[in-house]
Design a protein that fits this description.
151 residues; alpha/beta; 3 helices; 28% helix; binds the ligand Nc1nc2c(c(=O)[nH]1)N=C([C@H](O)[C@H](O)COP(=O)(O)OP(=O)(O)OP(=O)(O)O)CN2
Length: 151
């Protein structure tokens, strides 16, 4: 797919890596950049893969729910406590540690589902053509590290 566009979202996000041998097993946070890359074989009638605004409209609210939120392994013995205390600001990862890799995959799946919805929507202000695909999602961890998911 020769055409690619990207949009970066910034979120403040915490996680606990229960299997980590060092400090990462304790609650801690990262200022993360989430980069979404979409691709298409051809451009739409506006000469775009799709409008950048379409990405924000499709995904903004979802990523907002991960902002100032804590990603947790549901197998964490304190998962129930955290969820009771912080409600929707706890983002569950089903029996897996919420590493940047797992986060990138979860966001990739969400982007793909939301793109399908957007391309099926009729009369959208920022239409998404059916040929638009999510190519990859990159999630930064620190200024020197990131993880990426693609298929
Ligand atoms: N492959 C992965 N490795 C690590 C992840 C991860 O999500 N995927 N996460 C962590 C921790 O969350 C940690 O906060 C970040 O680790 P690190 O980059 O080692 O952070 P430092 O700032 O301590 O790095 P230094 O360069 O050693 O100062 C760990 N690994």
């Amino acid at each position: 797919m020769p055409y690619r566009i990207s949009k970066i979202f910034e979120i403040e996000n915490g996680h606990i890596l229960s299997k980590h041998p060092d400090n990462c097993r304790f609650p801690h946070g990262h200022s993360r950049m989430v980069e979404i890359v979409l691709a298409a074989d051809s451009l739409d009638s506006n000469d775009m893969v799709c409008d950048f605004k379409a990405i924000k409209e499709s995904l903004g609210a979802f990523l907002e729910s991960w902002d100032h939120a804590l990603c947790l392994n549901t197998a964490d013995p304190n998962f129930g406590f955290y969820q009771k205390t912080y409600g929707s600001r706890i983002i569950p990862f089903e029996k897996t540690d919420p590493t940047s890799e797992r986060m990138a995959k979860a966001i990739f799946d969400e982007v793909r589902a939301r793109l399908a919805e957007a391309s099926a929507a009729k009369g959208a202000r920022y239409p998404v053509a059916s040929g638009v695909r999510v190519e990859r999602v990159r999630v930064t961890e620190t200024s020197s590290t990131w993880a990426e998911y693609s298929e």
